[in-house]
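Supplementary Methods S3. Complex input for the flavin mononucleotide-bound model.
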Amino acid sequence: MKITVIHGQSHKGVTYKMTHTVLEFLMSSEDELKEFFLPKNGPGFCVGCNNCFLKGEEHCPGADKVQPIIKSMEESDVIILDSPNYVMEMSGGMKNLMDHFAYRWITHRPHGKMFTKVGITISSSAGALANHTVRSMAKQLKWMGVPKVYTFPLISNAMGINDLNEKKEQEIKSKAQKVATKVKKRVQNPHASLRSKIMFSIFRKMQSSPDAGWNPTDREWWINNGWTKDVRPWRQ
Ligand SMILES: Cc1cc2nc3c(=O)[nH]c(=O)nc-3n(C[C@H](O)[C@H](O)[C@H](O)COP(=O)(O)O)c2cc1C
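Predicted complex, serialized as structure tokens:
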């Protein structure tokens, strides 16, 4: 199994610990792990040039940082996004990377391999619920075609790793084990969900219509993949 982790922060705090506890339950010695830490391994801010949409992703000013991350995701069975809860959302570093992935949304040029992957989103917050943050990151993966995203939110009752009490450490272990068990099962039987198939078919219809010419780069992607005909990404 191949796993890509994108950390929405560069420090190794509570959220990092949650992710690594999941990995301990999930991985065996043959599995491969690639980790990216934001902002240090990521691109600069999206400048809104629209080059990714209109000319191609290689024309993004941040392509040298974006492409290795997205290629690692495309080669993985499991994609993990984690971030501490910052003002009830993912970190700015994570959101910035998500902006750079916009061209991979189903609305534009999704990668076919994303339709059979498994996602996990992880977030800790000090006192408020981190549910919105894990859902927000899950939404990003789902719009890239990922059919199933497991979420792992935690109220840490801590400002950082040094404040984490024993009870919370136990909670992390038990929740991480539950998530890992579900993910392992799903990885053995990768398949698209009804929701991802419906989303695909809505945008397939759009890209197949004679009026779909507003972005020829997107349209060519759908035609070249055979998706406007009978080919479906989850059957490859
Ligand atoms: C800029 C910033 C914003 C934060 N916003 C919230 C918040 O809105 N609600 C909350 O409960 N905790 C908030 N926190 C606290 C962290 O989410 C919490 O301490 C988390 O467990 C830290 O995880 P880490 O050790 O991985 O950094 C914030 C922390 C920072 C630094």
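The chain has a mean pLDDT of 97. The pocket of flavin mononucleotide is lined by residues 9, 13-16, 84-88, 124-128, 156, 158-161 (CB under 6 Å).
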